[in-house]
Amino acid sequence: MHRSLLGLPLLAALACGEPAKDTSGTDAQSSGDGESSTDAGTTDGTASTASTAPTSTSGMSGAASTGSGDPSSTSTSGSTGSDTTGGPVQAARCGDTPPEGAVLAPEIPAYGGTCPVLETGYMDGQAYNILPQTVSGKNYDREFLVIVPEDMQADEKLPVIFLWHWLGGEAKDFYTKGDVQNAVNQKRFIAVIPEARSDVLFKWPFTVLDSAEALEAEFIFFDDMLSCVNEQFGVDKDCVSSTGVSAGALFTSQLAGGRGDRLSSFMSLSGGTGGLTVKPWTEPQHKLPAMVLWGGPNDFCVAVNFQDTSHDLEMNLEKNGHFVLECVHNCNHSTPPFPVPEGMTAFAPLWDFVLDHPYWLAPGDSPYLNGGLPDSMPDWCAIGVGNAVPPAGTCDINECS
Fold it and tell me: Minimal CA–CA distance to 213: which of 140, 137, 277?
């Protein structure tokens, strides 16, 4: 299954699911405002972990599964959002008043055209929101979902989390498997779920063969979505984050480099940077707290060893002074088996991580350094590179197809 890029037959697939058509993105332009990415820097990581893990829960990586578990975090302090199960509220959280002298996120620029009236939520058959984009002389209708709390108040300025889907999935799959409507209702944020362009070979441009223009096209798409969501809802500019799964995670790390001045944090779920296949890390202007999560030494899908790419990412983050929360679940290339406490939305640890890390934190800082991890966080997550201890037991799940 593994095809070498050195011989230039392209990889058969880079993450869960079947690939799109065999073409790649090139030059990009858009009616929105765009910015160029920053300079790159890379290092290699070589840490290793054990290979055992717990049972699975609901699917987010391509194959759906369900289940539940009791909380297993050994931490007893930390903020867990509006559906808390105990522990004191952290001193720093999205929506709090920044300390005097803190560096705030830049203002979100206005869209260069006319924003559509955004439809929110999702049900089968519902049309997606559309923004036009021109890439290498071709016109595209770029599609995305916007999910807001069903009881959103007019005066709420909510955080925004972008969710980039995996290779075999679509935006609606992330919505369903991520329990996103329930999550935004409970945790009070806006989710933006982009749909990949149909003619990008691996859904998102992150391979060494993807051009700089193709990458910039997605960065501009991000700019345009954020501008229009802000125009309609008035978002918390100091809490804009990005999360990806598998192929989407590989792209999220690229977005962190290209648009790190706008992001407050990011999460890579079986993603990463570097190696023969994936573009290297680009150091952003702003220090970004990051959750780097993967499924252990057997997190592999066709042409990518996600343990290696995750190590490369977190080693670059550590070298450059970013805060890193490392999570290793050891269920291979599959859905993270978060043992979410009763009453919490599925994948609560993800949303808590974003909400606990506003833009204005000092470089390298995190409320977790003093307050400990939130109660929602599993005990296979730990602060710092190489500190996560995979759970005992076996886990033979593999959702790479």
Answer: 137
- Quote the CA–CA distance of 270 and 256 in Å, as a whole number: 15
The CA distance from 151 to 344, in Å, is 18
Give the residue carrying structure tokens 């799959």.
173
Residue-wise DSSP of 126-187: PPPEEEEEEETTEEEEEEEEEE--TT--TT----EEEEEPPTT--HHHHHHHTTHHHHHHHH
Our CA angle for 244, 325, 281, nearest 5°, is 55
Tell me the C-alpha distance between 167 and 245, whole Å: 9
Q: Is 265 helix (H, G, I), strand (E, B) or coil?
A: strand
User: What CA–CA distances, in Å, run from 107 to 34, 104, 234, 262, 346?
Assistant: 14, 9, 11, 9, 32
Which residue, among 352, 399, 388, has the nearest Cα to 84 in the 3D structure?
Answer: 352
Give residue limits of the domains in the chain.
50-96+103-383
3-state secondary structure of 333: coil
Closest CA to 341 of 85, 58, 87: 85
Which helix (H) or strand (E) segment holds residue 230: the answer is helix 212-233
CA 155 to chain centre: 27
**Three-state SS for 247?**
helix
In contact, 329 and 396? CB cutoff 8 Å: no
CB 219 within 8 Å of CB 30: no
Reported confidence tier of residue 280, pLDDT bands at 50, 70, 90:
very high
Which amino acid is residue 209, in one-letter code? Answer: L
Please tell me the distance from the alpha carbon of residue 202 to that of residue 215, in angstroms, as a whole number: 12
CB atoms within 10 A of CB 214: 23
pTM recorded for the entire structure: 0.80
Q: Give the H/E segment covering residue 218.
A: helix 212-233
Measured between alpha carbons, how far is 66 from 56 in angstroms, rounded to an integer? 7
User: In this predicted model, what pLDDT tens digit does every residue of 6-46 receive, in sequence order?
Assistant: 323 333 333 344 333 333 333 444 444 433 333 333 333 33
CATH class of 50-96+103-383: alpha beta
